[in-house]
């Protein structure tokens, strides 16, 4: 009886050790074959932590403002003031799974969304009050909002090699 008990423990420890060794080897191979350097990976991790912390802070502040607006409107029986909110599609885009691209240098889906979707000159532009710009201004930029040179929407800084 003790021999079977001992053998099952040895087999169990061998299975655990082989699984751990396999994961260690897979991790080492993945990091050696990664197109991202160790220093860039460290930066990416720090950036992600900072972005998540700021996102938490911004969402708390925005939720606070929205809740205050709704309660004020409810109790004072006044129409609510407009608050700029991301669309459902924008939330989906920044919440989707991030994958590394060799052609574009983005560290998160939020950065990718800001630098591509928000800077797309074909994107429909709106004025600060949500209305479309007058058609008389179409001759200026074809009706789309063109990025200023040197702004975060300028495509030249994003096209850098890694």
Task: Provide tags for this entry.
162 residues, 3 domains, 0% strand, elongated, disordered C terminus, ion channel
Descriptive notes:
This protein has 162 residues and is an all-alpha fold. 57% of the residues lie in helices and 0% in strands. The protein is built from five helices and no strands. α3 crosses α4 (109-117). It has helices at 2-33, 38-76, 88-95, 109-117, 138-141. It has three domains: 1-33; 39-85, no CATH class; 98-122 and 147-162, no CATH class.
Describe the secondary structure blueprint for this structure.
Blueprint: H1 2-33, H2 38-76, H3 88-95, H4 109-117, H5 138-141
Task: Describe what is shown at a glance.
This protein has 162 residues and is an all-alpha fold.
Which spans have pLDDT < 50 for at least 5 consecutive residues? Answer: 124-129, 133-152, 155-162
* Major beta sheet summary: none
Helix count equals 5
Tell me the strand percentage band: under 5%
Approximate shape = elongated
DSSP strand tally:
0
What count of structural domains? 3
**Helix/strand structural class:** mainly alpha
As a whole number of angstroms, the C-alpha radius of gyration is 26 Å
The overall average pLDDT, rounded, is 76
- Output the helix-strand order: HHHHH
Distance between the termini: 62 Å
Helical content stands at 55-70%
Transmembrane segments: 12-32
Membrane topology: Multi-pass membrane protein
Pfam families: Ca_hom_mod
GO molecular function, one term: monoatomic cation channel activity
